[in-house]
Sequence to fold (218 residues):
Amino acid sequence: MMQDGEKGVIIQRDKLTYAVAPHIPCGVVSPDTLRRLADVAEKYNAAALKITSAARIAIVGIKEEDVDNIWSDLGMSPGAGVGLCVRSIKACPGTTFCKRGIQDSLSMGMKLDGIYHGMELPSKFKLGVSGCPNQCAETCIKDIGLVGMKNGWKLLVGGNGGARPRLAVELMNNISDEEAISAIDRIIVFYKENGKRNQRIGGMIEDMGLEEFKAKIL
Ligand code: SF4
Fold:
């Protein structure tokens, strides 16, 4: 029996089969990749293809002996779906596709994915990028969220939608792409060095006080 995360598998409820969820940055997938996912699911008799809440496509209900061949047929890398690390980055279509978009959330999401996806941190960590205040990427319940505003990004921190949900608080507003990336980097480095194991960043901010956290980051 494999463990969660080993070879990118997620153990299923029956404790006999596994799911794999390849990395699909920001949920943008080409027709070719979609076909390959469907072909692999069919070839290995998967129980289902499940679009996950993290905008990945999981191939569910596969056997241990097929896992290596499945990854080799897919030619994709596993997404960071379990463990104490940066999970997938959720980004809405923003100015690339959405008529309401104010900022380019998809490009920003891809950038953040390239830098942070899979990075080990004290707890699981979710990032979101919304192209406008409608927050379709659920940015207010992400550990770090960017929201597109008229004059740049609003940076939110400390949200999560877990067992003890918490709304993120605003840390900065009207910041450029570069300022946003540099602030996110400071936040993540600070959390990596100071966060307690299994405590989301929102809990850390609550413990130390928002003003002190701001003083450290800004
Ligand atoms: S957050 Fe705004 S830009 Fe993004 S999908 Fe929703 S309406 Fe469109």
The chain has two domains: 6-74, 86-217. The chain has seven helices and nine strands. Residues 177-194 form the longest helix (18 residues).
